[in-house]
Write a structure and sequence with these properties.
Length: 191
């Protein structure tokens, strides 16, 4: 199973390591041709405005949008959540999201870098808590009717699923725990 990892900026290498540990074959996606053979995709954390601009300059925005429209299973973490959301409350005027999951989000919703935190999360479907690492994490302001909330922090959604799109406001690749990625792979290859 080939899983594309958007490799324009951000934490793509850590996601690739987790995918390898789970038996998947990560493919670094930097240009449209890199999408040709991938069955699913991960949009990592990083700086969402930079990633948005790089999607345009690399020519990847429309090919990724086309694959999302065709139902490509996709997992977005932190900045990836911002890129996949329907609406972004406080982005740059030229920043665009894919609208692949019916969420409204706010960048750095928990605060700046100094406000980053870690928290053990109760995740629907997991027997034990998952250690969430939140770094300048986005906050979900609105959840659409068809979105399943899988985990929360103080009642705010931090892990959500709609169809074949899963997003987290935290960085599961930083936890040393592969269960969230494994769940995504199950979703991607059992649908």
């Amino acid at each position: 199973m080939k899983v594309g990892v958007l490799a324009l900026q951000g934490a793509f290498a850590r996601h690739a390591q987790v995918l390898v540990a789970l038996g998947a074959a990560p493919v670094e996606v930097r240009c449209p041709v890199d999408l040709a053979d991938v069955d699913a995709m991960v949009l990592p954390g990083g700086e969402s405005t930079t990633m948005s601009m790089l999607l345009d300059s690399s020519g990847l925005r429309q090919p990724v949008a086309d694959r999302l429209a065709k139902g490509m299973p996709t997992f977005g973490t932190c900045a990836g959540m911002i890129l996949l959301a329907t609406r972004l409350a406080d982005g740059r005027y030229d920043q665009r999201s894919f609208g692949a999951i019916d969420l409204d989000v706010r960048r750095n919703g928990y605060g700046r870098q100094i406000d980053s935190f870690e928290k053990d999360l109760v995740v629907a479907g997991l027997d034990e808590t998952f250690h969430g690492v939140f770094i300048r994490a986005p906050v979900v302001d609105r959840v659409g009717d068809d979105v399943e909330v899988l985990a929360t922090v103080d009642e705010a959604p931090v892990l959500c699923l709609q169809g074949t799109v899963m997003v987290s406001s935290f960085h599961p690749e930083m936890s040393g725990d592969t269960r969230i990625h494994a769940r995504f792979l199950d979703l991607a290859f059992d649908h």
